[in-house]
Amino acid sequence: MKIVLDGMGGDNAPEAIVKGAVEAAALIKDDIYIVGxxxxxxxxxxxxxxxxxxxxxxxxxxxxxxxxxxxxxxxxKTESSMVIGLTMVRDGQxxxxxxxxxxxxxxxxxxxxxxxxxxxxxxxxxSIYPCLxxxxxxxxxxGASSExxxxxxxxxxxxxxxxxxxxxxxxxxxxGLVNLGTExxxxxxxxxxxxxxxxxxxxxxxxxxxxxxxxVGACEVIVCDGFVGxxxxxxxxxxxxxxxxxxxxxxxxxxxxxxxxxxxxxDLNAMKKxxxxxxxxxxxxxxxxxxxxxxxxxxxxxxxxxxxxKGIPYSRENVVEIIRQSMLDLEEIIEKDEEE
Length: 340
Prior knowledge:
- By secondary structure, the chain is of the alpha/beta class.
- The chain contains 12 helices and 11 strands.
């Protein structure tokens, strides 16, 4: 298997990308291709004293920055690490592409270079959503499209269900639709339509879910448009880290609290780990003709390593092909219902 990394994508590139690749390379036998400015990547690789043979460098002279216009960047910076990496996957020279670069450019590039799966109107960004004291959920869409039609929400539910089952091993995952109430009659016309479509689909649809239920694991697959999804993610992240900060400040207030903090250190570290995005790898762009994973722009080596490790089953379990076949099956069901 050939894993392709955007060596120049992200705030901490190429240092964190190289370190994460080295950590992952020690755990797997697959080849890792780091795409970017050769001299910079070689310099970082030399710092790690890596002696293995499963990391290779692909030279790319241009870099797509966070300030670049997505469409213009993909069209004009053809020698960038992102464009070359996506092209490698398209041409069969790579099995999966992972990038911490410009999200908009990555989504646009994936659509333009790899193309959409037939039957998918809009690809979706699927992000792992941490749950208190339990296994995480998958939130789809996390920001690829700020607006969505009912059909797009149906596609997100179907793709998310397949991903959770094949990559995370969650059998028959529950799919919930984010709404302002659990009643079937609640929500906008788009949400009501999406409810009926999901209800009639093959997924394990559990109905509407309210935002307050998400942190306690209301469902395994959370369906919403990209605007709502991005707000949910950032609000949850902000609340979680501020609560942890408040607890830390309280624990450091006096000697008694400091002693209690020492006794609770392992529990506090476990709580922090539950909400650390670096532990979950990256967010797949579902609906594209090839496995593509977006990692956080500020990812460190640990996030890069985990994205590589989670990316392996994404490719090996043929998730893209399963989604493609599922969309064909769904179209047949819809056509049959319309004929009846």
